Amino acid sequence: MFTERHYFPGNNTPQGFFSYYKYILGQREANRIICIKGGPGTGKSTFMKRIGQRFAKLGEDIDYLHCSADENSLDGVILKNRKIALIDGTSPHITDPVTPGAVDKIINLGEFWNEEGIASNKEEIIDLNEESARWYRIAYNYLNAAKSVYRSLEEVYGRAAEDSEIYRITADIVAAEYSGHPICLRPGRQKKFFAGAITAGGLVNYLGSLLENITKVYIVSVPEGFPNHSFMEILKEGAIYRGFDTEIFYCPMGPEEKIDHIIVPQLGLAFVTANEYHDIEPWELFEEDGTDRIAEKEITLIDINDYMKQHILEENYLLMSALKEEFEILLGRTVKALESAKDAHLKVESMYIPNMNFTRISALTEELYNELVEI
Fold it and tell me: What's residue 101's pLDDT?
């Protein structure tokens, strides 16, 4: 049974746009990496989506990499069975060939546009691009302010956490899941992405799709703002140093240090944190497997709230309520700014679309499919 997964290779964060594109497919593991070039509205997302859909019909595993500017648009597609990636190589995640010819190939959809028609809108396109960039700066300023509020929440929860109990639980999990596997001389590889994103359409999360073929899931319920770096790091390192390749999905509020979810594909194992922004109910993981049978999963629930010093939470109740309210306000303003940036970008796209030869792009889609199906 093939799998169709969805996630984000980049995100809108307090640091600005943050990219994990280098983890999509490594040069040594890839059979082919195709960098798609072209301006807005040239059909890059549709081009990649159609290729993915063609291979999905063959029953192959596909990863769809979504765009944090517009979750309905794609920034990439991975044909997992063939170790082939198609990647949007344009700003803000510019990707250029590393090993051209041997691994990488460029497809430039700009070859199929009417340059004179686009140039006739030059001034308006420049103005709209500047407007979009300005709204992104405003969005990132709001996110930076939200991060300061977030740190204050982390401080309260950090004081309230019963660290010794949390570490004991973590050690028990490590013993249960990893004790049968010795430390390996060659550590496993890490892939880093985002399961959810802060987008112009609000907060979007694809966690459910990532767990479809996972048989054992630990769901760790945490309050939003809880500093879960330490125990998730231990669970991650436990897999990596036993030689297991690991997928790590980060929080957009802490894209380099705050791990939201960990998947160890070789073990069919996942550790996920659940809070009000990426909640997942256990029964949502049980789906029909196509044979009128419920797919089997082993699920363990851990509630971090059970390991908190309640008197500290009670003493700081008013402070935490105010911080959460402020965080929500700033997050809402971020989304509004991203929406304005998207609106400006869509206006730019509307000036490119009438000047594109999509018939020739459709023919190119067919050519590329016929080329890749032989790999």
Answer: 66
Residue segments in the chain with a per-residue pLDDT below the cut of 50: 290-294
Residue 226's φ and ψ, nearest 5 degrees, are -70, 130
C-alpha span between 205 and 163 (Å, rounded): 29
* Alpha helices, H only, the chain: 44-56, 115-119, 122-160, 163-178, 207-210, 229-240, 310-315, 317-352, 358-372
* SS3 per-residue string spanning 229-260: HHHHHHHHHHHHCCCCCEEEEEECCEEEEEEE
- The type of residue at 342 is K
Distances (CA, A) of 252 to 131, 232, 236, 273: 24, 16, 18, 14
What amino acid occupies position 328? E
Question: Contact at 8 Å (CB) between 189 and 247?
Answer: no
d(CA 287, CA 165): 34
The whole-angstrom separation of Cα 257 and Cα 331 is 20
* pLDDT on residue 292: 44
What is residue 173's predicted lDDT score, i.e. its pLDDT?
A: 96
Q: What's the confidence (pLDDT) of residue 230?
A: 84
* CB neighbour list of residue 372: distance below 8 Å, 6 or more residues apart: 32, 51, 55, 79, 82, 84
